[in-house]
Amino acid sequence: xxxxxxxxxxxxxxxxxxxxxxxxxxxxxxxxxxxxxxxxxxxxxxxxxxxxxxxxxxxxxxxxxxxxxxxxxxxxxxxxxxxxxxxxxxxxxxxxxxxxxxxxxxxxxxxxxxxxxxxxxxxxxxxxxxxxxxxxxxxxxxxxxxxxxxxxxxxxxxxxxxxxxxxxxxxxxxxxxxxxxxxxxxxxxxxxxxxxxxxxxxxxxxxxxxxxxxxxxxxxxxxxxxxxxxxxxxxxxxxxxxxxxxxxxxxxxxxxxxxxxxxxxxxxxxxxxxxxxxxxxxxxxxxxxxxxxxxxxxxxxxxxxxxxxxxxxxxxxxxxxxxxxxxxxxxxxxxxxxxxxxxxxxxxxxxxxxxxxxxxxxxxxxxxxxxxxxxxxxxxxxxxxxxxxxxxxxxxxxxxxxxxxxxxxxxxxxxxxxxxxxxxxxxxxxxxxxxxxxxxxxxxxxxxxxxxxxxxxxxxxxxxxxxxxxxxxxxxxxxxxxxxxxxxxxxxxxxxxxxxxxxxxxxxxxxxxxxxxxxxxxxxxxxxxxxxxxxxxxxxxxxxxxxxxxxxxxxxxxxxxxxxxxxxxxxxxxxxxxxxxxxxxxxxxxxxxxxxxxxxxxxxxxxxxxxxxxxxxxxxxxxxxxxxxxxxxxxxxxxxxxxxxxxxxxxxxxxxxxxxxxx
Length: 663
Known about the structure:
By secondary structure, the chain is an alpha+beta fold. It folds into 4 domains: 68-76 and 288-421, Fusion Protein Consisting Of Minor Coat Protein, Glycine Rich Linker, Tola, And A His Tag, Chain: A, Domain 2 (2-Layer Sandwich), CATH 3.30.1150.10; 99-259, no CATH class; 430-550, Fusion Protein Consisting Of Minor Coat Protein, Glycine Rich Linker, Tola, And A His Tag, Chain: A, Domain 2 (2-Layer Sandwich); 556-662, 2-Layer Sandwich (TolA/TonB C-terminal domain). The protein contains 20 helices and 27 strands. Strands 1, 7, 8, 9, 10 and 13 form a 6-stranded mixed beta sheet that branches. Strands 14, 15, 16, 17, 18 and 19 form a 6-stranded mixed beta sheet that branches. The longest helix is centred in the first third of the chain and has 33 residues, at 88-120.
């Protein structure tokens, strides 16, 4: 059995065990956060645990004879063949698993693209909890990452606040990340029914969490239960979204059982013990290796070559010579061993910079159960290469042990790894030029200082004045790690000498404050527009600040990084409206009631402006709602990129008559 298929079987087995642990030990406690966390672990841990090598149990080396195998270095690549051509049935079996995985992954990709296609053509509506995307084809509200989708009909539903709380709870908890991970796991392990069960159980917990948040905020489980019944029978539109209509039967049952119960510590300890025991025993199961027929050169070599060894080497024994012994073998054969090195060994930076090349000889012990122990360097080359070899040697999976007279014996294998630099590999990775960095480079003194510098150092060329040439020259350059300006080029020019003037001004710039990525100074490409305009009676040039920066103070944002906040928070805002609204007497006498939707702008200083009615009920109620909003105290303004900005805010003002009282 190949390593891949054995790995898949181990993952499926551990996933099934952990689901059993979840069902008997975690689920009865009804702790939603714990339930979600354990279900995520049933996906992540089975993928990782089979890859962890067995713990090294050191033995007294004198108790067993040690057979030493020395593998000579070769510079050619090794070609591994199975000895006979695989049959048609084997080829079909090998192709079946990846073919189904590709089909399922394509289906997942199509599902994601379907949502994004709706986003591109979407109409947005403001709500008290945030912006929603209108999808009138959706019979049930749903969410995907930070986007919430509603139909106009659902927004007008009397219980729309419940629906909004539910869907925005999915956004808050990041449930879409779980759904995407679970869907990918299900695609990879399509042959296991437990992969589908994991996906379903995780989706159920998501809905329980959103239900708990919605009922806690609204305080009315009975109305919420009736609301869920109205969506019974409506299917979800997409495998990757969080539809409100999902798992309704179980959610209705769970609605009155959301309070956590006692955690069964004994069950948890027992379940973990069983899982660890199974993981330990499955780690001992390893695939059978391949045999080497005739190593030849296939004509390929990696850029930073790690030239491996020919496995058909003779063996030298420390205790007598015996031709009946078979050497230890890496799982999957020498081709797999070479691939293991190439995927895991990294050419040390110090060795590249100092042009260190050569062969590192190292030794490892292969125990009778296949474990790799006690790696050590026999002869090294320095520059970090020796340490890198030891690091990767410690990561080796268990080998197929050497056999003597039908019994496993302890052996020591000496292996060479050749470090070789090919053309171009000496290039320092720090020479990369970034387009976007975490900390952008800045002209010394800031944006205003750069504008003043350009005004002083750019003069309108005489030729351009005579030809009445106007326009914007776009200059590209690189801010080096020390702040110097280099590689100045004209991206788009206007001619008549303007391009040369702009280029020289940029070349003569003083050093900038360099950009940074992950806390380190890096090279950053910067593009700068320089605008040349002819004024009345004067010929001059100006530096043009990009349009988005010019209009930033006047732009009205609908979504910002830091939303505006009413003084005292949301509860204080609601209390303010309740305490300050006066129900118009005429509207009261005529029985006029309803919800007025008001939009307004929170200015950078926190004041309220541009108060308008989005959807009114009656002129009397509309006027009162506008009055109260206009009288609001100053808010804490919203911020974008750390700067206060104008933010549009929408709020409903509900007028209702109840048993002769106004509310």
